[in-house]
């Protein structure tokens, strides 16, 4: 609307456009039969419809991880990215969940299993479950996801004791209209549908009508002398069915109540006492199909904190999953068609895992681990999403603040590595930061981590929720202090102050987490010094000149040739001392120098073939090495102690350095802080050196 004020007319028009055209339209059974012949997917079961839903919103393939990323999770198109999921581990979990659903769609077994999302608190499993429900609601409102049910009409004209209020009755279980056909005739229709079906699955349907509908069908067939066509034409209307959790229609969530008050009727339904006096106790019309399994039929059942339920109460899930039926008290069995998803945290899972009496339940679950994110750059994106979705004060987030917060979280989650690899090196490897010359195999680290972890790597540690809370506190604290920037140092202070006081962090882990925090401080110190080094010693022309000199000597070294001396013009051997002075800035050992030289040589050759001129700024490793060498050459002329005190430094010089840091993403205030912090650290190391 381009900023114009919405009118009632425009709002009404928008709403009408969002509603399926046939939502209020009653159609005949004959129409529905033609519709499913035209598009057999219309009569899919729940697993098939949910499986297609994930593909409907788009997919991308992550070749490195071998994982399909589903855009409803990686981009969240329905909510403008507000609920985007980050991290390789989470997308692996989502990929595994969808594979289970797709296997169920093909009838391979998982359709008879509970999909149990297992993870620590704050790992995203509940939010993913919520997202699936929201997208299922939206999908069933589209043409691609449409589904239908039926309602009985004019029942009082035939059935004498029918309550006038029940003259029209919607299918209590929202069943597919094809269930109205006797199985033999239905099988014939399905056989024809599958001949034209373009899908990786087969349409199946061997459900029986719910007891109330079966009563109506039997009564009407008796009245019409078994003329099925007359029954369906005179008493059945087909209607569009759109999932809605608020209406408890095809989507249902179930939360455990107090253990002493758990009642299976919450799941399976109960007697409708208002109808008992009218129909009698044994009449199926006197049953209230209000149980959670009834409401979820044709769609999604979500069981929150499932393993907190009493063991006896979980038995209902055995029939619901394995037999795809429920058996309410004082009522015949009822067939159900739904994707059953459960969620549980680690303590409940560990408790039930060793319980021999839970063996049958465990056998009917498909566990999908939802670990914490293990790449700290991806973790930082979670915090950025949090800030985007909130009303954040005018606060500048300084470089490294969110990444270092994420690094702390990752260090608490990964298993201790072996083979001489430090914990920080492992975190960097997971983050994709290990150089080719480093003898670290990230894939092997992941394999070893999975083997050494209790249940799986990332299933323990500090949650993004805790870190996000501390970032929020740090922001508000900065606001109260009149500061308009959030620095890593401020975030570290809040971590340190609150680690011992947070209920989700076991007391036994606190001391270890303090050590991890010190590792993060040390990593930040190196990055802060690197940023200041970049600002104080940065000289594009000098870096270009040194880069060209380095490449001239590398090429001569590789070709066993000479190079012209810059001053005398004479031919000379490659300057090994100069070459090593650059390479040592990347800690490249003597025995790996040839690999690095060949690597940069190949890079230059590829660019030359493409017609691209040499620019060391385009090679991150070479640029860093040259910057560090330039820093070594210049640092002896810099008064680092003066950086700590504004009174000891020339204003113009300090302003130039602050401007250089601002160009790197710092705020002016944050630049002053990092100058003082890094200056103090370098001055200390110079004195110690």
Automatic annotation (TrEMBL):
The keyword Kinase applies. Keywords: Kinase, Transferase. It comes from Halobellus salinus. SUPFAM superfamilies: P-loop containing nucleoside triphosphate hydrolases. Residues 27-421 form the PrkA AAA domain. Pfam families: AAA_PrkA, PrkA. One of its GO terms (molecular function) is protein kinase activity. The keyword Kinase applies. InterPro entries: P-loop_NTPase (IPR027417), Prk_AAA (IPR013153), PrkA_C (IPR010650). This is Serine protein kinase.
């Amino acid at each position: 609307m381009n900023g114009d004020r919405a009118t009632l007319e425009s709002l009404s028009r928008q709403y009408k456009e969002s509603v399926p055209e046939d939502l209020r339209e009653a159609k005949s059974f004959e129409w529905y039969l033609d519709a499913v012949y035209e598009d057999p997917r219309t009569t899919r079961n729940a697993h098939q419809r949910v499986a297609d839903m994930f593909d409907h919103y788009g997919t991308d393939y992550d070749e490195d991880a071998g994982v399909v990323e589903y855009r409803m999770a990686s981009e969240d198109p329905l909510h403008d990215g507000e609920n985007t999921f980050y991290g390789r581990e989470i997308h692996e979990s989502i990929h595994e969940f969808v594979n289970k659903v797709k296997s169920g769609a093909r009838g391979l077994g998982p359709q008879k299993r509970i999909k149990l999302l297992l993870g620590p608190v704050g790992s995203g499993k509940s939010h993913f479950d919520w997202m699936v429900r929201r997208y299922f609601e939206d999908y069933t409102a589209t043409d691609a996801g449409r589904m239908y049910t039926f309602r009985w009409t004019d029942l009082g004209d035939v059935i004498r004791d029918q309550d006038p209020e029940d003259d029209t009755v919607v299918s209590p279980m929202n069943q597919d209209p094809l269930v109205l056909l006797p199985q033999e005739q239905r099988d014939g229709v399905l056989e024809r549908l599958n001949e034209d079906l373009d899908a990786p699955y087969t349409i199946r349907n061997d459900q029986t009508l719910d007891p109330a509908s079966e009563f109506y069908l039997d009564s009407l067939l008796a009245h019409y002398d078994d003329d099925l066509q007359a029954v369906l034409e005179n008493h059945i209307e087909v209607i569009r069915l759109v999932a809605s959790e608020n209406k408890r229609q095809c989507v249902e969530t179930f939360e455990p109540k107090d253990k002493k008050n758990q009642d299976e009727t919450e799941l399976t339904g109960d007697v409708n006492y208002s109808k008992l006096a009218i129909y009698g106790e044994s009449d199926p019309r006197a049953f209230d199909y209000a149980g959670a399994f009834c409401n979820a039929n044709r769609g999604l059942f979500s069981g929150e904190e499932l393993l907190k339920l009493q063991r006896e109460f979980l038995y209902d899930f055995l029939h619901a999953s394995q037999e795809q039926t429920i058996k309410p008290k004082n009522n015949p069995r009822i067939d159900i068609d739904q994707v059953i998803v459960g969620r549980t945290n680690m303590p409940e899972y560990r408790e039930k895992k060793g319980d021999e009496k839970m063996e049958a339940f465990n056998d009917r679950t498909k566990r999908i681990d939802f670990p914490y994110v293990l790449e700290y750059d991806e973790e930082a994106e979670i915090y950025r999403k949090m800030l985007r979705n909130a009303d954040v004060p005018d606060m500048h987030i300084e470089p490294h603040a969110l990444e270092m917060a994420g690094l702390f979280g990752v260090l608490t989650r990964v298993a201790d590595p072996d083979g001489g690899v430090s914990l920080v090196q492992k975190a960097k490897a997971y983050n994709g930061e290990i150089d080719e010359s480093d003898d670290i195999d990230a894939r092997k680290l992941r394999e070893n981590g999975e083997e050494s972890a209790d249940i799986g790597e990332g299933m323990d540690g500090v949650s993004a929720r805790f870190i996000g809370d501390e970032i929020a506190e740090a922001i508000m604290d900065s606001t109260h202090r009149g500061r308009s920037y959030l620095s890593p140092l401020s975030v570290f202070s809040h971590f340190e102050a609150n680690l011992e006081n947070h209920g989700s962090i076991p007391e036994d882990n606190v001391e270890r987490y303090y050590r991890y925090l010190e590792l993060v401080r040390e990593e930040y110190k190196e990055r802060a010094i690197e940023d200041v080094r970049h600002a104080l010693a940065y000289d594009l022309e000098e870096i270009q000149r040194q880069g060209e000199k380095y490449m001239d000597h590398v090429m001569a070294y590789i070709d066993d040739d000479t190079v012209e001396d810059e001053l005398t013009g004479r031919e000379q051997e490659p300057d090994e001392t100069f070459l090593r002075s650059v390479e040592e800035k990347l800690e490249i050992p003597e025995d790996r120098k040839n690999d690095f030289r060949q690597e940069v040589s190949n890079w230059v050759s590829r660019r030359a073939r493409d017609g691209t001129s040499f620019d060391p700024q385009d090679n991150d490793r070479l640029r860093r090495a040259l910057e560090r060498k330039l820093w070594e050459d210049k640092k002896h002329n810099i008064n680092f102690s003066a950086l700590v005190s504004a009174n000891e430094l020339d204003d113009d010089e300090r302003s130039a350095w602050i401007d250089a840091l601002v160009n790197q993403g710092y705020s002016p205030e944050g630049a002053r802080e990092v100058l003082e912090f890094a200056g103090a650290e370098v001055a200390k190391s110079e004195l110690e050196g």
